[in-house]
Amino acid sequence: MTTDKIASIRARVQGLLEERGDRQPLLDTDSLFFSGRLDSLAATHLMMLLEETFGIDLAAADFDVTRLDSLAEIEAFVSETQG
Predict the structure, then answer these.
(1) Domain that residue 56 falls in
(2) Do 74 and 64 touch, CB atoms closer than 8 A?
(3) Which parts of the sequence belong to the Carrier domain (predicted)?
C-alpha cells in the first residue's frame, strides 16, 4: 500500500472523528469502534472509502467491521486483500 493511500485513509478517519466532535490524537492502534469513537454510520463511510480507493468488495453480509477497528487493522486488511 502506498504512503499516499495510507495518508488518505488516516485523513478520512480523522475527518470522521472530527465530524463527531472528537479531536483527540489518533494513534495507529487506537480503537475506533469498540471505544465508541466512531459509530455504524462512520463504519459505512469507511467501508465505502476502502471500496472506492482500493477496489475491495465489502458487500458480503458476513463482513466483520471489527477488522477495521484501528488504522493498523485497516492497513493490514487492505494489504491482505491486495495480495
Answers:
(1) 3-81
(2) no
(3) 1-82
Total domain count, the chain:
1
CA-wise closest residue to 26 among 45, 44, 41, 11 = 11
CA distance 53 to 76: 15
Is residue 45 within 8 Å of 13, Cβ to Cβ?
A: no
Model confidence, pTM: 0.83
Give the residue among 12, 4, 2 at the shortest CA–CA distance from 50: 12
CATH number, domain with residue 52? 1.10.1200.10
Q: Is 15 helix (H, G, I), strand (E, B) or coil?
A: helix
pLDDT digit string, tens, across residues 46-79: 988 888 888 888 877 577 888 899 999 998 888 8
Q: How far apart are CA 18 and CA 37, in angstroms?
A: 10
